[in-house]
Amino acid sequence: MYLAKMPSESVTSVSVRLTIFSEIERIAAEQKLKIQPLHDDLLLADSGLDSLGFATLVARLEDHLGYDPFATSGDLDFPVTLGDFVRFYENAAA
């Protein structure tokens, strides 16, 4: 199947969100973890991913998206919810 490439500005936040959600689901399946339904208000601590899962997620997102906002951010306020996590990546892409 071929997908038409859309201008990156119009799909950046959608593609970041979809990439994050799909990678979380993939990691959970690989590690046989039971995760909570994914939504913006989900606390990361309650998501079902452990520290290894989050480390894997950040590494894979860097591979897919080409950046690691944790490595370049001087911001000491780490994301608390899944929505915060998505926005953290979206803002780094801007």
UniProtKB/TrEMBL annotation:
Pfam assignment, any one: PP-binding
SUPFAM superfamilies: ACP-like
Key word Transcription present: no
Annotated signal peptide: none
Annotated protein name in UniProt: Phosphopantetheine binding protein
PROSITE patterns tied to this protein: PHOSPHOPANTETHEINE
Organism from which the protein derives: Methylovirgula ligni
InterPro entries in alphabetical order: ACP-like_sf, PP-bd_ACP, Ppantetheine_attach_site
Keyword Phosphoprotein: yes
Start and end residues of each Carrier domain: 32-68
Keywords: Phosphopantetheine, Phosphoprotein
